[in-house]
């Protein structure tokens, strides 16, 4: 393997540290970063700001072309992290992946001292699925028979608030179940299964396939109708690869935020399509999308729907869910920016101001229903903290990210 330090390529890392009990940011946490397997050779030591975030660090990574073409050389470098904060158990993370020219965001959820056992200690991030060896997907029908006994609860496609992930094969009763916000689940899977260096159209096509597959499991209650108490598994033989605590990549995160209410349909079929796929290098899968093939088509200029139709046929199309669960108010349908006014602006300001009580770098705003310079500044700071384009305007992605953070903060406040 070519060591990242032997190249001039660099990737970027930001660590986001929160309290596992309420997701509030932890200020002044210290993070020691070393090359994987060399804990005594600390490369960087940094601290978190009031938003629980480190500065963006530049770290050696293999050349970007390694992740744009299938090969035997590992296309990412790996780092180990030790996170420490007063009043919390130390947290070790092994295997944070850094790709050249990409922004990696490593979440670090810390457990208060003497409160409970950390879910994973240490957090270990295994090989990426395009590099390591994982079981191939067991083929299924892409449309499930709907049981007429009434066991299928949903009559329309709804974006769930939470996905219950069984961290193993379905029959492994010892595997843990994790409750994961829907968007966080999709981001985790996409970062585990494709590379953030790929063309945006390739990333988008893969994200759409992951979301459609996941929503098929939700819509049909596939596992619950078999007597299980989860939505989906982390086994590549049955579903997708999900990894507790893995780092995500900003380019993939932004795509998910922009389209998280979408899925794939066929004419006359109500349920989201179970869009199966394989890597196309280690495993071939006729009639399914291949991940490396989607990368090649993206490099050739294909759009996301052209990539999907190339593999799944011309009848497939992009649909939008009728409902998004767990949100205080839906997006107004057009961007809010300076000069906007009305009830939606007031709702936005109320949510932002609540978030600002926890993320104190965000300016406080008075909910007056008028989108002025102070509201724009608060939005811009929110976008900076949460990895969104810093426009100062509220588009679809920003509205729902604000809503997501607001719901998390207010729910935790109610429990205290």
Q: Oligomeric state of the chains?
A: single chain
- Integer average pLDDT: 94
Would you list the SSEs in sequence order as H and E?
Answer: EEEEEEEEEEEHHEEHEEEHHEEHHH
In what range is the share of β-strand residues? 15-25%
Query: What spatial form do the alpha-carbon principal axes imply?
Result: globular
Structural class: alpha/beta
Question: How would you describe what is shown here?
Answer:
The chain is an alpha/beta fold. It is 26% helix and 20% strand. It has eight helices and 18 strands. It has helices at residues 182-193, 200-220, 250-259, 291-299, 304-312, 343-356, 373-385, 396-415; strands at residues 10-19, 30-35, 42-47, 57-60, 77-84, 91-98, 103-110, 123-124, 158-159, 162-166, 177-181, 232-233, 248-249, 262-265, 277-278, 289-290, 317-320, 323-324. Strands 3-2-5-6-8 form a five-stranded mixed β-sheet, with no helix packed on it. Strands 4-1-7-13 form a four-stranded mixed β-sheet. Helix 1 (182-193) crosses helix 2 (200-220), helix 2 (200-220) crosses helix 3 (250-259) and helix 2 runs antiparallel to helix 4 (291-299). The longest helix has 21 residues, at 200-220.
């Amino acid at each position: 393997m070519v060591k990242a330090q032997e190249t001039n390529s660099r990737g970027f890392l930001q660590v986001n540290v929160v309290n596992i009990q309420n997701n509030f940011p932890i200020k002044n946490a210290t993070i020691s970063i070393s090359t994987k397997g060399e804990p005594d050779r600390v490369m960087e030591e940094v601290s978190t700001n009031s938003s629980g975030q480190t500065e963006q660090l530049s770290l050696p990574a293999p050349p970007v072309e390694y992740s744009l073409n299938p090969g035997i050389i590992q296309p990412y470098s790996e780092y180990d992290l030790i996170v420490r904060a007063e009043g919390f158990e130390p947290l070790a993370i092994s295997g944070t992946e850094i790709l050249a020219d990409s922004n990696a965001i490593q979440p670090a959820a810390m457990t208060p001292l003497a409160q409970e056992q950390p879910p994973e200690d240490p957090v270990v991030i295994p090989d990426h699925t395009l590099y390591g060896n994982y079981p191939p997907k067991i083929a299924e029908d892409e449309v499930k028979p709907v049981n007429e006994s009434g066991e299928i609860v949903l009559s329309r496609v709804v974006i769930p608030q939470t996905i219950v992930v069984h961290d193993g094969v379905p029959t492994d009763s010892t595997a843990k179940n994790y409750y994961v916000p829907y968007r966080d689940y999709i981001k985790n899977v996409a970062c585990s299964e494709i590379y953030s260096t790929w063309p945006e159209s390739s990333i988008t096509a893969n994200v759409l396939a992951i979301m459609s597959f996941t929503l098929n499991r939700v819509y049909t209650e596939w596992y619950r109708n078999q007597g299980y108490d989860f939505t989906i598994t982390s086994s590549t033989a049955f579903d997708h690869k999900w990894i507790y605590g893995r780092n995500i990549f900003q380019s993939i995160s932004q795509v998910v935020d922009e389209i998280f209410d979408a899925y794939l349909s066929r004419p006359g079929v109500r349920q989201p399509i179970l869009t199966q796929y394989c890597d196309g290098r280690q495993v071939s899968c006729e009639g399914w999308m291949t991940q490396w093939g989607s990368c090649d088509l993206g490099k050739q200029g294909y759009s996301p729907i052209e990539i999907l139709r190339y593999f799944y046929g011309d009848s497939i199309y992009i649909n939008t869910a009728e409902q998004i669960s767990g949100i205080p108010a839906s997006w107004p349908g057009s961007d809010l920016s300076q000069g906007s006014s009305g009830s939606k602006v007031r709702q936005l300001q109320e949510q932002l101001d609540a978030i600002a009580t926890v993320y104190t770098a965000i300016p406080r705003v008075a909910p007056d229903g008028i989108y002025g310079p102070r509201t724009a500044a608060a939005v811009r700071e929110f976008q900076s903290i949460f990895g969104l384009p810093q426009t100062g305007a509220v588009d679809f992605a920003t509205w729902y990210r604000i809503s997501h953070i607001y719901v998390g903060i207010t729910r935790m406040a109610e429990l205290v």
